[in-house]
Design a protein that fits this description.
Helices cover 39% and strands 12% of the residues. It has 480 residues and is of the alpha/beta class.
């Protein structure tokens, strides 16, 4: 049953929210130990919320469009009174005094907060192996990673622990785990969803978005969380997203380009596996069959995206993470002087990957190196914006793989950061330029694991990318 079908039954009184919740909690009790999707299962709170939904229905009040739907939140979104750790020792047991805006919106829509999900520490990773609380496993194959950094959210939906989940996407952290776990995952336009209450990684890149088992459910959750928020200075004014009503309009007449540099062709970035390329080509055929015009297009600057991102994101992280000093909140390791206390706290509290990125970002911003590294990365970002703007004069949407491979084995890439970083090569461009993108499952690779294809669009084209995703979803179902 889809999330929308579940909500409809709860709203109509056919099912009770408390009964729905208990079914999900039973699955968590049975399987969570082998998957580790959650850092915290909020059982008592969820039961209180479910009862409140049932009380509303019984009293004739509409509890909202997601009534009774269990939703999981990535553990970098503030939840009042509930631990928000970012999967880091430095924030272990920290309980925020407020809710993130998206948390408030989801609750107002009648959804049930079922838990906080595991992630790569401070969202820095592509496999959810960097968590201070242990890795998350892919429910489709427990020997594989679920992707990252929002791997816990993806695993929660894929395992049936939650009907929907929210993740954050700084360089692909929603779309890549969605691809690995056979889900729909969407990154909205920068500013389309409030970041108030999201613990910052890269402030010019971060965006919150939905995970779902199908396109319509993802669209419904996006509508709930989207829109202007005066508490977020980067929030787009007067935005009230509506995408669900047009999701079945198809792609007839749309112009769609396959990005050559991200699709395994001549001049393409290295590492994109041939079976993944095959699925992208099959998706292109499906879009053509549905009435779209599809042809190859070159966006040369995408080959520079990975290098630019791994300067911009660590630079912003080194600034954002300076607040964890042992004074204001979180871990404190006492020492003789304030400086020694700061150093000891950060040494003990941060994991290896976070330390690596802080050092890289601090170096890129330091005197004598700013122009050579960070300054050049900003020029690449501007070039990418210009090239994509030119391409969108000719095309409505673009098509690429979501990730270069299917889900890889746990531990395979942890010793080689560069190999790990390449996982983000197809998703990073959308973050650098602030445009929306969605990953939708489209068949499997030669190992039998899901392959995600990615639809990209210009700013505020969410309705279009959901239409294309729905078309691909229908074609994939017909091929089964």
């Amino acid at each position: 049953m889809t999330a929308l079908e579940l909500a409809a039954e709860v709203r109509s009184g056919q099912r009770r929210a408390v009964d729905v919740l208990e079914e999900y909690l039973t699955r968590i009790d049975t399987h969570e130990a082998s998957i580790h999707a959650f850092n915290e299962v909020t059982t008592d709170l969820a039961r209180q919320q479910a009862q409140a939904v049932d009380d509303d229905v019984q009293a004739g009040r509409d509890p909202g469009p997601l009534a009774g739907v269990p939703v999981a939140f990535k553990d970098n979104m503030c939840t009042r009174g509930i631990p928000t750790t970012c999967s880091s020792r430095i924030l272990e047991n920290w309980r925020p005094p407020y809710d993130a805006t998206v948390v408030q919106k989801v609750r107002a829509a009648g959804a049930i907060t079922i838990g906080k999900t595991n992630l790569d520490e401070f969202a820095m990773g592509s496999s959810t192996e960097n968590s201070a609380f242990g890795p998350t496993r892919n429910p489709l194959d427990l020997s594989r990673v679920p992707g990252g950094s929002s791997g816990g959210s993806a695993a929660a939906v894929a395992a049936g622990f939650a009907a929907l989940a929210l993740g954050s996407d700084t360089g692909g952290s929603i779309r890549q785990p969605a691809a690995f776990c056979g889900l729909v995952g969407m990154k909205p336009t920068y500013g389309a969803v409030s970041r108030y209450g999201l613990v910052a990684f890269g402030s010019s890149l971060d965006q919150i978005g939905p995970f779902a088992a199908n396109v319509a459910d993802a669209a419904a959750l996006y509508e709930v969380i989207g829109g202007h928020d005066p508490l977020d200075s980067t929030s787009i004014p007067d935005l009230a997203p509506t995408v669900l009503d047009s999701i079945d309009r198809g792609v007839e007449g749309l112009r769609i380009g396959i990005v050559r540099e991200l699709s395994g062709g001549a001049g393409s970035v290295e590492g994109i596996r041939s079976d993944v390329v095959d699925r992208v080509q099959a998706a292109a055929v499906a879009l053509e069959a549905a009435g779209a015009t599809v042809e190859e297009v070159s966006v040369p600057s995408t080959t520079l995206g990975l290098s630019a991102y791994y300067l911009v994101a660590p630079a912003e992280a080194s600034s954002n993470l300076s607040r964890y000093d042992g004074v204001r909140y979180g871990l404190r390791v006492d020492a003789a002087t304030t400086g020694e206390m700061n150093a000891a706290t950060r040494t003990e509290g941060f994991g290896t990957e976070v330390k690596r990125r802080i050092m890289l970002g601090t170096y890129a911003l330091s005197a004598g190196y700013y122009d050579a590294f960070y300054g050049k990365s900003l020029k690449v970002r501007t070039l990418m914006l210009q090239e994509f703007a030119a391409v969108y004069q000719r095309f409505d949407l673009l098509l690429t793989p979501t990730a270069p491979t299917t889900a890889f084995p746990l531990g395979e890439r942890t010793a080689d950061p560069m190999t790990m970083y390449v996982n983000d090569v197809c998703t990073i461009p959308s973050n650098l330029i602030g445009h929306p993108a969605i990953s939708v499952p489209f068949g499997v690779g030669h190992d039998g694991l899901p392959v995600g294809v990615q639809v990209l669009g210009p700013a505020l084209s969410e309705a279009l990318i959901f239409r294309a995703a729905a078309t691909l979803e229908a074609a994939a179902e017909m091929d089964r």
